[in-house]
Amino acid sequence: MFMARPISDPLKKPSRELLLEAATSLIRMNGYTSTTVDDLCEKAGVSKGTFFHNFSSKEELAVAAANRWSKMTSEFFRSAPYHQKKDPLERVLGYVRFRKEILKGDLADFTCLVGTMIQEVYSTHPEINKACFDSVFQHAENLEADINEARKLYCPKAKWTSKSLALHTQAVLQGSFILAKASGDVRTAAESVDHLENYIELLFKK
Amino acid sequence: MFMARPISDPLKKPSRELLLEAATSLIRMNGYTSTTVDDLCEKAGVSKGTFFHNFSSKEELAVAAANRWSKMTSEFFRSAPYHQKKDPLERVLGYVRFRKEILKGDLADFTCLVGTMIQEVYSTHPEINKACFDSVFQHAENLEADINEARKLYCPKAKWTSKSLALHTQAVLQGSFILAKASGDVRTAAESVDHLENYIELLFKK
Question: Domains along chain A?
Answer without folding.
Answer: 65-203 (1.10.357.10)
